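haha ok so turns out i had the wrong file open the whole time. this is the CORRECT one, sorry everyone. sequence first:
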Amino acid sequence: MVAIVILAYAVIIYLDLIPLYRKKHWRDFGVNMALTLFTLGIALLISFDVSIPSPAYPIKNLITLIIGKQVSYE
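then structure:
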């Protein structure tokens, strides 16, 4: 599974990041590189069967902090 993840990200880097680098679109390249590395890390953790916590509760707490009341999803 790890080999598939690495191969898929190699294709993504080849098709997406290398053209941005060659055209010297530095901001786009930087943002795409950061997001690609972040998602690569998450994908590798998932392929190693590491449990990744859900961001739902921190997002709910942030919204409650901003709005000031409990958010209902019903």
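The chain has one domain: 2-67.
again sry for the mixup
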